[in-house]
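Input chain follows. Return structure tokens only.
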Amino acid sequence: MTGIKKICFYARGKDEKPFELLDYYSNDIKIFKELGYEVVLSFDSSNFPKDCDLYYIWWWTSGIIPLVKCKIWGKKNITIGNLHYSDPSTQGYFQRPAHIRFFIRYCLRNSQMQLATSKIEYDDIVKLKAVNPKLLYHCIDENKYNYIKADNRENIILTLTQLTKVNIERKKVVEIIKAFKIFLAKFPDYRLYIAGNTADNGFPDIQKLVNELDLSEKISFVGRVSDKEKIALYHKAKVYVQPSDFEGFGMAIAESMACGTPVVTSRAGAVPEVAGDCAVYVQPNNPESIAQGMIELISDNNKYSKLSSEGSKRIKKYFSYKIRKNALTELLKNY
């Protein structure tokens, strides 16, 4: 792509904080700047800049207004996101209102290029007749999420999620808590850390469940965490658990693997693409299965050490920052 000097990076929001806090945004922003492009950040479609050469638009839902403006202005554009076409939860494509599904189809068929973040997402946008689809996996910056050998970890089981009702459902937080209750019968000296904003609308229900199960002394709600705090938790925890109903990629799973923290998860969505044979897989709707996965991992020192080491190697091999930077370089060069 010639003549590109200024890129508008758009993702709808209340302010610019997510551009720094969310790695799938900040990684691409950093890459574009390293490649020499001027990057203009935009989160408000009503105040969308007109003087950029390329518009990099996140999400086929909230990106519809910026995309329409690009078409009116005759501007080059790329749209990126996760469709959740195969997601059975309330966040899935088929559970969304009809007008939202229309927005998605419009964007997929009218943007000049679509970037899917996993093979399952790529296959699904093709089903909806996406124009010029490309597969480009998310990346994990290994200099940031550095590997630490899983010796001398604290007796902590960790999960990270937004504590909204829809995310609690998809990330199986209720099932994790019930599984932890079962797990404690064999390993009573462990604690469960749940990282997520306690101001979210699902937190009161989770707090009530913890009290009902008499787990308030064994479960810590650590609140919303910064990148530094999140990485410290990865390095401290013995196991990361996230048996989701669906993941379009699974950033937290990949981050924990990069840090050397073995993962208990599910074969849902893109998770097998990311974790491969470097995780313990369980049934997401079955607390007993989740508990047995955690028990299996803690009880087998050889398996635990192997997953810690091999998981980190897998992320570096297939999902490194360098791989994504090279892919974006070629993509822009050959647009």
